Amino acid sequence: MIKNISNLGDAAIYCDFGSEVNKEINYEVIKYFKTLRLKNIKGITNLAPSYNKLIITFDLDVINYIELVEKIINLKPDEISDSASKRKKIPICIDEEFALDIERVSKNTNLNIKEVYKHILNKDFYCYMTGFVAGMPFLGDTNKNIRLKRLETPRVKVPKGSVGITEQFCNIYTYESPGGWNIIGNTPVKVFDKNKEENPILIKPGDSVQFYEITKNEFYKIKE
Amino acid sequence: MSIEVIRPGINTTFQDRGRSNLYHLGIPFSGAMDTRNLLITNKLVGNDINDAVIEFALQGPKLKVKQNNINCVVTGNVSFTFKKNSKIYNGECYKTFDLNNNDEIDIISTNNSMYGYFSISGGFKIEKKWNSYSTHLRSKVGPNKGDKIVENDILQLNKNVKPIIKKSIDYSNSKIEFIRVIKGTNFDYFSKESQKSFFENQYQVTNLTDRMGMRLDGNKLNNIKSENIKSEGLIKGVIQVPPDGKPIIMLSDHGTIGGYPKIGVIISADYDKIVQLPPMSKIKFKMIDVKSAEKLFKLYSMETKNILDQI
């Protein structure tokens, strides 16, 4: 359920589903997002779903805030069919060449390296949202004892494919970019592929994700 | 039929009206920063108003045409020259002119503004990606493999099938006293004094400004609630305040998710104006409500239509 609707500027609606971050609330956001995608309401130009908010932008030449709010309030969101959300297995290499912050993570969590990965590998993560840069999945929740803050000084360049953790979240850098997450491995698979016209993202909101370990050799083989 | 890039300029890209419906993947609208000038440019050279143009920032490109009878135009507040039969002429914005094989155009700089536009009758031979000709550098999406135009690029042109009509219009971006803002969703995160001072004091555009965002310098805004929010969607025009208390305005190529409190949003009618402010410009914000913003947008749309109708 939407708890509160307000305007974000003069050409966007801000739907607030709550302040906590959990699967149940996020499921509601995704339900509305998917329904609106299908409904194709005239004037809507973009939808930005996140943990617990949904932002809807519109063309002010076509519709205005009051008119669109009316439509959103009356919207009956469709239930998501189970088949729509998929399980994705993502290979990662945790060789020290890629696990840039593993020592720091190990030290700050008081866990040895093996124990840290026990909380990452073959665990089910849920994809809350994608974005910031194209295709970047925000996954969660990680186990309480590996939750850390971001790096105090963010890296200028985080390599593409890096898998990072911070707070209760885990993400994959789909582009080389600046960033402050604790990097614990790298995946050779294309999580965002702009050449896939219809389906450029591998991991979608609502999907469940499992990381499995691969060797350096396997890493470079997949990368080719 | 092509144009050779002798010098690319600082940030020269193909842009149209932008790419919608991909926020959920992490891809913003992009598109020409100054929409009105994009439309005027297309109309002046007789192209569809949704066609692609070349956008440049501060320093523009130097181009050599490899084709006779090219009808082109430069818009914005821009200094440029063109070389025709080895003779150099000073260019005039918003007035079409023609170039022949081996003639050159040198877009020297934008004046007291950020962005200018260049196009030719018939347009550029480029492909749409996700229904748009806009370039988004961050995700490398758009024409030219999603990259900036660089030195020695050869820009292919469409064959112009329409008769060439010389066109011009007397237009300049209106001067602005205030940038009008609607309260953001986290306005109450800031102290009463900061809420007041945000609208009372001037801010200055810093050097850290590009198509993604604009960092401002000025009175530090005091956050009394929480310096971070749970990451959520962003839209262009949002004014975020990071822990250092200095506002950042999200612009057309912004990251689609952010975790800083939103103190305000620039109204749609003033977006073309704020993007044109170069570093060192002074800004003063004025708070208005949604109803007034809608009225101002109607006025802006009508003005745009009137200008286009005159061409």
Explained architecture:
The complex is a heterodimer of chains A (about 220) and B (about 300). Chain A has about 220 residues and is α+β, with helices and mostly antiparallel strands. Chain A is about 20% helix and about 30% strand. Chain A has helices at about 25-40, 65-75, 100-110, 115-120, 215-224; strands at about 5, 10-15, 45-50, 55-60, 85-90, 125-130, 135-140, 155-160, 160-165, 170, 175-180, 180-185, 210-215. Chain A starts with a strand and ends with a helix. The model of chain A has no long low-confidence stretch (mean pLDDT about 95). Chain B has about 300 residues and is α+β, with helices and mostly antiparallel strands. Chain B folds into two domains: about 1-155, Jelly Rolls; about 180-310, Cyclophilin. Chain B is built from four helices and 21 strands. In chain B, strands 20-13-14-17-16-19-12-21 form an eight-stranded mixed beta sheet. In chain B, strands 7-6-9-4-1-11 form a six-stranded antiparallel beta sheet, with no helix packed on it. In chain B, a hairpin with a 7-residue loop joins β16 (about 240) and β17. The chains are: A alpha+beta (about 220), B alpha+beta (about 300).
Text of the CATH class of the largest domain in chain B: Mainly Beta
Q: Would you identify the CATH H-level superfamily of the largest domain in chain A?
A: Cyclophilin-like
Detail the poorly predicted runs of chain A.
Answer: none
Q: How far from one another are the termini of chain B? A: 27 Å
Q: H/E series of chain B, N to C?
A: EEHEEEEEEEEEEHEEEEEEEHEEH
Structural class of chain B: alpha+beta
Strand order of the largest sheet of chain B: 20-13-14-17-16-19-12-21
Low-confidence stretches of chain B: none
What does the overall shape of chain B look like? elongated
Which CATH architecture of the largest domain in chain B would you pick?
Answer: Sandwich
Overall pLDDT confidence of chain A: 95
* DSSP E strands of chain B, number: 21
CATH topology of the largest domain in chain A: Cyclophilin
Largest sheet of chain B: 8 strands, mixed
Which protein chains make the most extensive interface, counting residues with beta carbons within 8 Å of the other chain's beta carbons? A-B, 45 and 41 residues
Q: Give a quick account of the main beta sheet of chain A: strands, pairing sense, barrel closure.
A: 7 strands, mixed
Q: Which fold does the CATH topology of the largest domain in chain B refer to? A: Jelly Rolls
Strand segment count of chain A: 13
Strand arrangement within the widest β-sheet of chain A reads: 5-13-6-7-10-9-12
CATH class descriptor of the largest domain in chain A: Mainly Beta
What gyration radius of chain B follows from the Cα positions, in whole Å?
A: 20 Å
